[in-house]
Amino acid sequence: MGFYAERIVPRIVDAACGARAARPLRRRVCAGLAGEVVEIGFGSGHNVPFYPPGVTAVAAIEPSDLGWGLAADRVRASRVPVRRAGPDGRSLPFEDGTFDAALSTWTLCTVPDPLVVLRELRRVLKPGGALHFVEHGLAPQEDRRVRRRQRRIEPLHKRLSGGCHLTRPTVALLTDAGFTVTEVDVFYQERVPKPFAAQSLGIALSPGPGGPELSR
Question: CA separation (Å) from 67 to 5, 38, 78, 130, 160?
């Protein structure tokens, strides 16, 4: 990683993800979380104020030392114990079936191998554990013009934003990774240009006993 990726991108992400407009979505996606939670793409901790009372502990997965440093005040102020547990969602340092729930907010757009990350989340979730997610990605199928704009913009956007994709199909990725999507709201975020505004917010469940096996 170069200077831009290490020192500039985390500050851009901190500012963008700290926008006031994102707070209602963070509140919605965190609602209902309970027990021990693993959060991938923890960033600078903007979800911390929205953890509900049922959450007992959070294991934060965050690759950026600067991002974790920017989260310090939020982590100290948290009523929920939060520990930085690893840097890479593709190889989570936990035993199978460790967590009651998982949280991903605007993370699957950037991770290098989203299917690998999602399968790792499945592995460390207890059977029937819930992944709460809000992600931006590919515009709805009927909005072909928006999709074309996303594909044109994406190469430059990835370079400026640390690898963030605009065209990843969130729900399809979850399904391909073996999750069952039980709730999803697909919408455009207000006051955001449409190529950047297509959001999917919902809950996906890890299979219970007798569900499909993970491919290793």
Answer: 11, 17, 17, 26, 17
Q: Which of 18, 133, 9, 2 is nearest to 71 (CA)?
A: 18
Which amino acid makes up residue 138? L
Cβ neighbours for 21, distance < 8 A, ≥ 6 positions apart:
189, 190, 191, 192
Q: What is the pTM of this model?
A: 0.93
- Tens digit of pLDDT for each residue in 95-113? 999 999 999 999 999 999 9
d(CA 145, CA 91): 37
Amino acid at 119: R
> In sequence order, what are the residues at sequence separation of 6 or more whose Cβ sits closer than 8 angstroms to the Cβ of residue 29?
103, 105, 132, 133, 134, 201
Which position has the token pair 């831009």? 4
- Give me the helices (H) in 78-143, please: 114-124
pLDDT tens, residue by residue, 139-192? 999 999 999 999 999 999 999 888 999 999 999 999 999 999 999 999 999 999
**What is the band of 16 on the pLDDT scale with cuts at 50, 70, 90?**
confident
Task: Report all structural domains of the chain as residue ranges with CATH numbers, in order of start.
Answer: 3-205 (3.40.50.150)
Exposed (0-12), middle (13-18) or buried (19+): which is 166, by Cβ within 10 Å? buried
Q: How far apart are CA 126 and CA 128, in angstroms?
A: 6
Give CA angle at 121 (39, 106), nearest 5°.
45
Q: How distant is the alpha carbon of residue 38 from its chain centre?
A: 11
